[in-house]
Amino acid sequence: MLVQREEQINLLRDTFRSCERQRRGHVSLVTGAVGSGKTSVLESFGDWAATAGGRVLSAAGSRAERGLYLGVLGQLLHGARLGSEPATRVESLLREAVPPLPEPGGEGADGPAAPDRVWAPVLHGLFSTLLDLAEPGPLVLTVDDVHHADPASLHCLLYVARRLRHAPIMVVLTEARMLRPAHPHFRAELFSQPHFTRITLPPLTVEAIARLVDDDAEPAARETAERCLRMTGGNPLLTRALIEERLREEADEEPAPDAVLGDAFDQAVLGCLYRHEPAVRRVAQALAVLDRPAPTDLLGHLLDMVPESAAPAVRVLRTSGLLDQDRLRHPRIRRSILADMSAEERRGLHQRAAEVLHEHGVEPGTVAEHLVAAGWADAAWTVPVLHDAAGHALAAGRPDVATACLRLVSRADVDEEQRTATTAMLVSARWQVNPLAVNGHLGHLVDTARDTGWPAGTTLAAVPYLLWQGRVEEAGEAMAGCGGDEEQAHSATAGRLRAMQLLLALSHPDHLASARDTAGTPRAAGLTAGGYPPVQALTVLGAALTPTGEQDPVGGAEQLLHRHHAEDGALPLLAAPLLALLWAGRADRVAAWTAALLDRPAVRHTPVWRAVLRALRAEAALRLGDLPGAEQHARSALDDLPVAGWGVAAAGPLATLIACATESGWHAEAERWLAQTVPAGAFRTPLGLHYLAARARHHLALGRAHAATADLRRCGELMRAWGADVAGLVPWRLELARVQFAVGNKAHATQLLQEQLRVPYGVDERTRGRTLRLLATTAAPDHRRKLLSEAVNLLQGCGDRLELVRALGDTGQTLQRAGDSAQARLLVRRAYQLAQDCGASVLAQRLVRRDTGGLPAAPPVEPVEPEDGLSEAERRVAALAAQGHTNRQISSKLFITVSTVEQHLTRVYRKLDVKRRTDLPARLVAYAEPLPEEMQSAAS
C-alpha cells in the first residue's frame, strides 16, 4: 500500500469489483498536484487489477507527444497483444481514421453530426475490439497524465465512456492540476457521465510522513516528519527526496566524486516545476529572486503580465507544496530554483525586481540587495538608494552588505563629494571585515580631507582607522583641523569630535594631557556631550584607566553593556566598557559578557569585532586562571584576524598567548609568539604594556632578570608619565618585585609590594591578593599565615584560580614547616587539583616537588555531596557553562560526549533551580564551595 493513498486505491478496487459483478463500466479520474503520487496509485491499482482477473491496457500522455495523432490510443492497443486477425482489423480501422478530428467533446466544422458521419465506423469497430477483450473479464484502460493526451485519442476515450453502461470496461485517468484545463470540452463531457468518479490525492499529513520515516512512528520520527512537512508542504515527491537524503546521511555513505549534496531534493523541486507550464516556472523564478512575500500585482508587474495571469500560477505552486502563502516554502527550494537559472537570467530578473520594488516604495535595503545582485547602478535613483542601504547596514552590524552596496556606487558616475562620502563609508565597512584592505582608501581619504580643509564628516570617519594603524600624528592633525572651525564647535558633529579626541587620548595615553587641556578630564568630556553613546563609553574607559574615585567604571560599564548589548551594530561601542571592566579588575564579568556577545548572530558578519571580543575573552580567561581557555580564544582571535591586520592592537592577543605559554612552561612556544612583528607604535598604547609585562614574565622564567627588569621599568615609566598608574592595566611593581625576589633583593621587593598596596584607586582584589601572597614570603611565620589567609580569600573571591593555587601552595608549605603535615597535605592536594583544572601542569608538578613531602597517597574517601547537591562531574560542567563555553567545547575539554554534557546541565538546572544558561554564574557564586573549615583554620 502507498502511504496515505489506501483510501483512493480501495475506492478503485471497489469500482473494479462492481464492474466485474454488474458487467457495467466506470470512469475514474485521479487528480492531484504534480508529484502527489498519481502515477504510483495508477500503477499499484493496475498491478492489483491484473492479478484480480482483469486485463489491463496502459498508456501515458506526454507534452512532447501531444501532437502525435492517436498516440495514446496506439499505446493502449499495442499493449493488448491482439491476435493476427483482430490486429489486422484494428490496423485497417486506424488507417481509416483520417484527421482532422474536432476538439473532444466539441463540434466539427459542419456541425455536431459531422464527426459521427466520418468517424462512426472507425469508433464502432475500435469499441467492438475492446468489448472482445473484455469478454473473459473486466478490461481496465489506464491513461496517466491524460491532460497531455492527443485530441484524437481523447475523442475515442469519450466514445467509450458514453457506452460503458453495459460494457465491463473500467477507464482510469490521472490528471495534474495545471494553470488551465488542457481540454475543457473533454473534461466537461467526462464529468457529466453518470458512471464517473473523481478521486483527489491530498498532501501527506505528519502521521503519513512519520510512517515513511519510521514504521514505528516514534516521537523522533514524528519530529522529523514535522520538519519535512514544513519544508515540503506534504508533496510526496519532495518528501521522499528529502527522506532519501536523510537516510543517505545516516548511512554515512561515501559520496561519489561527482555527487552534489542535496541533489535528490533539488531535482525533485525542478521536476515539479518543469512538469508545469512555463508561466508557472517564471513565477517561481520571480519569487526565488524576490525572496519575500509578493502579492500578485507585484509579480505581474515584475513579469510584465496582468495580475490575473499570475494568480493561477501562485495557486498551482501553493498546491504543489513549493509555496507557503505568498513566498517559497523553504530556502532549499529557493536555492534549487536559482541554481537552475543562468547568470544572465538572474541578473536580469534582479534588475527588474529592483526597479519594480523601488516603484512600489519598498525600503532601500531590499532594493539595494537586488541592485547588487544585478551589478547595476546606471539609473539616477540607484546611488541614493545604495548609500542609504549602506548606512543602514553599517548601523545593523552588516559591513559585508554595506561594502557590496558601496562598491557598486564607486563604479557609478558620481561627483567628487559623493565619491568622497562613499570612500569614507567604504573604509568603515571594509575595515570591519579586513583592516588590511583599507590602506589605499584610507590614504586617499586623508589626502582628500586635507585638500578640502578637513570637513568634519570625512575627517572624523578616518580617525579610528588611523589610530588602529598607529598613525597618531595624522589623526591629531585631522582633529585639529576639525576643531579649528568655530561653526563645528556647536554643530551636531561636536559629540563625534569629542569622542575622537577621547579615543586618541585613551588609545595613546601620551595624549591624555592635551585631551585634558582641550576638554578637561575624560569624565568632564562625557558630561559636555550629553547622552552621545560613544562619548559615554569612552568616559567609562577613562574612569578605569585614570581612576579618581569620582566615578564607578564597573557600574558605568555594566549599564552601557545592558543598554546596548542587544543592538546588532553596537559592537564598536561595547569594546570600551569591556576594556574598562578588565582594567577595573572584573575579568569574570568580561568573560560573561564576551561569551554572550559572541553568541549573537551579527558577530559572524564582523570578523574584526569578533576577533576583538575573543581577544578580550582570552585575556579575561588568563586572569581567571583558565590557561587552555585563554590560549584557545587568543588563537581564535588571530584566526579571525591575522597579526598583520591588528595594527598596534596586535600587542593584545600576542601578550595573552605569550603569558599562557610561559605559565604552561612552553617556552619555545612563547618565543615563537615573541618572534611575531609588533608595530613600534604598539608600545604607545595600553595594550603595549600588556605585551611588555608578558615578555618580562617570559624573560624571568628563562632566568633573564635584567631583561625582565628593563621591560617592567619601562611599563612603570610609561604609566606614571600617562597618569594611568592602575594595577588592572599592569601591576608593574608587583611583577618587578617578583624579579627582585628572583635575584635575592628581598628588601627592594618588599618596598615595591608595599608601594603597590598604596597606589590610590589602583589596586583591585586580584592585585591585592597577589601582592599579599608575595609579602607573606617576607613576613614572620605568624604574620605570614594571616597574610596568606587574606590572600586566599581575595583570590578565591575574584576567581583567579591560578594565583589561588600559589597561595594555597604557600600556605601548605608554611604549615609543613610549622609541623602540621596533615593540614599541609590537604591544602597542597587542593592546590594540585586546581592547577590541573587550570591547565598549569608545570605548576602542579612544582607543588609535588616542594618540601611538603609531595602528595602522599591518601585512603579513599567517600565524596561528600555539597550543599547545592551537585556532583563533582556536574560542578565541572556547570562551571565551564557559566564561563560561556558551548556544549561541544565542554565535551572536548572534559572528554565526554555532548549528550552527557546535556544530561549534566539538565540536572544542574533542576538542582540550582535555574531556567537558562545565563543564570548559572550568579547561582554558582551563591553556592560557591568554600574552603573547608580545616583549611581556613590552617590558613589563619
TrEMBL record:
CDD domains: LuxR_C_like. Pfam families: AAA_16, GerE. InterPro entries: AAA_16, P-loop_NTPase, Sig_transdc_resp-reg_C-effctor, Tscrpt_reg_LuxR_C, WH-like_DNA-bd_sf. Residues 863-928 form the HTH luxR-type domain. PROSITE patterns: HTH_LUXR_1, HTH_LUXR_2. Keywords: ATP-binding, Nucleotide-binding. The keyword Transcription regulation does not apply. The keyword Nucleotide-binding applies. This is AAA family ATPase.
